[in-house]
């Protein structure tokens, strides 16, 4: 029987070109980029070069690029960052009850910090009812 994988949002095959570029860092050029020794310096330089390549690709600055471990950390980082940074403009967040658990849990945390969270209902197709928004 042929198996089919439908959870690509959680994990997917790595492009062979990415593997090829990463193998040297996994085998020989590894290091803690926060360390002062040569291994750390090489790792930090590699990360900075990667950030610059991404920045060039999307038309931003390298210091605006943040690498995370995955979608959950990214959602948490983005939502908390924007909410806390702009809390002087309002502390009301509107979302839906069908968001990814990482968004829902982050909203629960922000609620404990004094943010008001509104959950807009959706229909059976997951569409927001604009009238209830």
Outline the structure in words:
With about 130 residues, the chain is mainly alpha-helical. It has two domains: about 15-65; about 70-120. Helices cover about 45% and strands about 10% of the residues. A two-stranded parallel ribbon has the order 1-2. Helix 3 (about 70-85) packs parallel to helix 4 (about 100-110). The chain is extended, with a radius of gyration of 20 Å. The chain starts with 15 loop residues before the first helix and ends in a 13-residue tail after the last strand.
Number of domains: 2
State the secondary-structure class.
mainly alpha
Overall mean pLDDT score?
93
Largest sheet: number of strands, sense, barrel closure: 2 strands, parallel
Which key terms come to mind for this protein?
mainly alpha, extended, 8% strand, 133 residues, two-stranded parallel sheet, 2 domains, 4 helices, 45% helix
Topology of helices and strands:
Layout: H1 16-27, H2 38-58, H3 71-85, E1 92-96, H4 101-112, E2 116-120
Parallel strand pairs: 1-2
Helix pairs in contact: 3-4
Q: Gist?
A:
By secondary structure, this protein is mainly α. It has helices at residues 16-27, 38-58, 71-85, 101-112; strands spanning 92-96, 116-120.
């Amino acid at each position: 029987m042929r198996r089919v994988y439908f959870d690509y949002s959680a994990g997917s095959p790595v492009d062979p070109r990415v593997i090829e570029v990463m193998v040297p860092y996994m085998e020989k050029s590894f290091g803690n980029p926060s360390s002062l020794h040569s291994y750390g310096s090489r790792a930090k330089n590699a990360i900075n070069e990667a950030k610059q390549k991404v920045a060039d690709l999307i038309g931003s600055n390298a210091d605006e690029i943040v690498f995370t471990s995955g979608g959950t950390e990214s959602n948490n980082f983005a939502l908390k960052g924007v909410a806390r940074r702009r809390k002087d403009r309002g502390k009301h967040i509107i979302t839906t009850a069908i968001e990814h658990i990482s968004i829902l849990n982050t909203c629960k945390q922000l609620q404990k910090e004094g943010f008001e969270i509104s959950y807009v209902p959706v229909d059976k197709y997951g569409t927001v009812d604009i009238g209830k928004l």
